Amino acid sequence: xxxxxLVFLTGLFLxxxxxxxxxxxxxxAAVPVDPWALVPDDAVLVTATRDQPTLVRHLKETQIWDxxxxxxxxxxxxxxxxxIDSLTGGRNVVLRFLGRKNVLTSVHVTGPGRFDVLLxxxxxxxxxxxxxxxxVDALARDPQFRVRTRDYEGTLLTEISEPGTGRGLxxxxxxxxxxxxxxxxxxxxVVRRLASPKQPTVAxxxxxxxxxxxxxxxxxxxxxxxxxxxxxxxxxxSDVVLGIGAVTNLARNGQLEMKLAGNKVVLNGFVNxxxxxxxxxxxxxxxxxxxxxxxxxxxxxxxxxxxxGLGPAGILRGARPATPRPDTLNxxxxxxxxxxxAGLSQEVALAYLAPPTARVKPGRLALMWCARPAQQxxxxxQLRRVVGASPSFERVGPYQIHQTGVPELPARLVGPxxxxxxxxxxxxxxxxxxFGDDAAALRAWLQDVAAENVWSRSPTQVAFLQDTQxxxxxxxxxxxxxxxxxxxxxxxxxRRAGLLRNESLFKRFPQVALQLxxxxxxxxxxxxxxxxxxxxxxxxxxxxxxxxxSTGTGSVLAFKTPLxxxxxxxxxxxxxxxxxxxxxxxxxxxxxxxENVVAWSDSLPGPLVGRLQRRTVAGRAGYLLATAGQxxxxxxxxRPAPQFPLNLPDSVRATGLSVSPExxxxxxxxxxxxxxxxxxxxxxxGNAYPNWQPKxxxxxxAAQPLYLVVGGRDVLVVLLENGYVYAFDQQGAAYPGFxxxxxxxxxxxxxxxxxxxxxxxxxxxxxxQHGEQVTFTLAGxxxxxRRVATWSRTxxxxxxxxxxxxxxxVAREEGGQLDLFEATGRRLLGQRFLTSGTKPVQFFDFGSxxxxxxxxxxxxxxxxxxxxxxxxxxxxxFESSAPEIGLEYEAATKxxxxxxxxxxxxxxxxxxxx
Length: 914
Fold this sequence. Notes:
5-stranded antiparallel β-sheet, single chain
């Protein structure tokens, strides 16, 4: 082949490759991938998430995360994540990779007694693709794993296995969408599905629904009710699944949004009805939704309640009575059955009582509402006489238990949903006929009703019912604590051990309710049910949330105990608003999430002193804080580090805590002001530094000391009331040039104006009681001195730094008059107050001229907020019982969020400032 021909063919090949690449980019890659098209049609459940960090944070704040970590599946997942971190040499690699991607997770039944999970994660950039390839290459080099590829119907499948363990993973990359599963069968099903791209997806009925447009949605859940009994069959016995299937055929499929909030998980959405002939929906179509009125006769030992709201109860039975054994019936019975059915309406329900052990069959009851209970009692008496049943009865309190003499009587009255009562007994309780499958179950029930141990008398159960939908066609209510033995009995043998291992997770939410509410236009085509799935644990926490004011603007968290401290705002990664730490009068510290829910509470031995410090101790991020006799460290879940609290000597009463700066090397150093002029220095292991036990000074401290690190050296700056300033090293020796005099007494703290690399280039500013702003270096030199405002013997000057400690203003108080000045001496505002006591001042600077000044008058408990022009915001002060308020600015909405305490209430509201 000639050289020219070779060059020509090479150029032609490169041109063809370039054309193919351009074609791919402009045609194939330009068309977005529908992630739902990658989900096999046999999916039972599909979850979608778009903000994994926020979801994890909510799981931790609602304490579900701690319960999930006890589940073997999630423990295996955690081990996998830890392995990926170790192979990639990073931390939180998986969580950062997932980020805010649209991640789909589907659950499929893959065999008898087996289900598997399929996950789908988009790859958003070349960098992320390289991360995946690097991870696969690292696994291929590791002798513990085996990586191989194989072709399946023209698609390359990558299989990663761990020989000898039976564990493995199969994945494909379809147009930068990673689809992987422990089951290779599911990945193969994805490949087969891709061969028919125009086939409707599992979410085709909900194409116009995007719950993620709503606020605070953590995830969505797609449910295939037609396949749900198949999944439940993996866990439960066939007779149990049969009963569940009789109820689930009310619906075909549904999509729900999920929100995690404090003591509950709420899933709201829409469900398409099951329209096949003979379905429960077709029987009940057009029937009105009803309230759950039978709470007054529902025993507190109820484990499971299946409640149906309808019109005439005979609609469930149909035109002809269900007669499983017609040869045993006396013809005279049929008219009585029809008369009994005609008197039943509005509510029918099945209730299961909590058995004492899993070996004991649970008691089962059928409850039916009747408008004329006395007439129904007469008809039952006639029925007993016709069939020859014993007229004797058993009395339980004011109620009577009678034999019915008719097998399967509940099913004969209201249809096959109530089959299984072979020799039923009956009692009339209020407006309800209550049938029991044996006398013992009905007797126990009636004893509870007579003793008023019923739902309507339980504040916990009433609060739960208030969270549910008031009107519904179907309500399935589960008490997981009462149902524990019921579930153990219903599970297949190989699944019982798993339930026992995961008991803490299962009982995390003892109150569960699933409800379907029909649409008002149900007779029209396309009408859907509104569905709610509520998982709740009783609100035994310290506070209850409610709207603020008659307009509902803002929110209030009402605590059981009055709040004693100021709200301390703490930033939360991934959240637009901060969390809040607040202490009540019983010395309990509460953490309130950005969603206004108390996530944890921790009792302290006394009120907090000094500032709270965010630090990392032994690899755990959290909060360093002090009480009078102890130093504490609480992580972000409110748990103390093993070596904390640190106990101070009995003679020490701490008045403040200063901590070495974040990232200053080594473990944090803790400087404790011990009253008067005494200072103590510790590390986080409780070791005391020499010459600091204590460091005694001649005068009282003017403010909390500053802990600085300059050029790798610790510098502890101490201001005394007599106007002298000291700078000490870690060994307690004074730096050269110190002490220095500020020329007058001091009443407030210092601020670092310039953080330099050396002592001589680091400048600090203070304001003395002669109204002078003094700047000095850590070399002991006075750099400048200028008067900010005039002074007198009764005036008090304080330097007020902003929340970031980058700038400051100067406050001058004299009697009831308070004035604020810039560092240059320009007067910002002045206000005369009724009281003459000290008024705490706060300065907030959010940049671009967005400045707010807060002044709290402690006597009447009022907080005055002024803007940068000195105008009073809102035209009047806000009620505040703490010395300080919290204020944050949300740039996205241009709204200020005000946090304040008023008695037992933590209040927050949005303010729009011009």
